[in-house]
Amino acid sequence: MSRYIAGPALTAVAGIGLLSIMDGLIKLAAASHSSTQVAAMRYAVGALVAFAVFRALGTPWPSLAVLRPHAWRSVVVAVTALTFFYSLATLPLAVALALSFTSPIFIALFAALILGERPNRSIYIALVLGLIGVMVVLGNELTHTERVGNTLGLVTALISAVAYALSMVVLKSRAAQDPLPTIVLLQNAFAGVLIAPLGLISWTMPATGELGLFLAIGVLGTAGHLCLASAYQRAEASSLGVLEYTSFAWAVGIGFLAFGEVPSASTLAGSAFIVGGALIASRHARETRAPDVEIGP
Length: 297
Description:
Largest sheet: none
Radius of gyration: 18 Å
Structural class: mainly alpha
Order of helices and strands: HHHHHHHHHHHHH
Mean pLDDT: 81
Family: Belongs to the drug/metabolite transporter (DMT) superfamily. 10 TMS drug/metabolite exporter (DME) (TC 2.A.7.3) family.
Number of helices: 13
GO cellular component, one term: membrane
Helix content: over 70%
Subcellular location: Membrane
Protein name: S-adenosylmethionine uptake transporter
Shape: globular
Main location: membrane
Distance between the termini: 41 Å
Low-confidence stretches: 1-6, 286-297
Number of strands: 0
């Protein structure tokens, strides 16, 4: 029987696409508001949307035993959001996204260390192809220092990649045990509570027209994470992690349509490696149930 499973791979790609569109809207919002306020608004709206889905599906209330690992994961999610949103606000979209593409490497590493996954050879090939693609893109960007402009932005982009990878592996450990609406609701609610004080410090009142923008950010974030939770419930984290590279295609499209960024030849060359790696990974995504691994305090 073929080991190709379209469901988890396509669901993950859909989730990544929704989150990539959200990233473009975040960059737009960050032009008028601090990255901490944008993050706080994203999770506040996301929590409301997730709660509506939670109640509409009649999902049972989580027990205290369920709350503990999700509270710990939300700390990692909050770190991911704050660092990534800052990088989006201070770096060109292509640079921020290129650095975030290192996350599949860390996902494979954490999946092996925490979940005991053993990625097959095709996953390693996909990781190498994706990393080559990222280096092609990033090498061109870093030769134009005036286009980078913010060392702290580069550092926070890398921190967000590591934190995101850890959050995805923890998600994998919980996705086989908890309902998907519960996972997404707790992620949004807990992360929102952690980020809210920082958002209030730098708060500026959004214009009436911007409320729709923040609503769209929250809806896209919730929908994207529902897709990812569903995918990670059904396939190995190391296999799906490589599909993060597909967000590059979204970044090129969004950068061109929303910000007038025309991809360079090196950008297109890098995308060929990235997409090739993602296709290899998607053809070998193995359906699996996560082991009952308890992560966090």
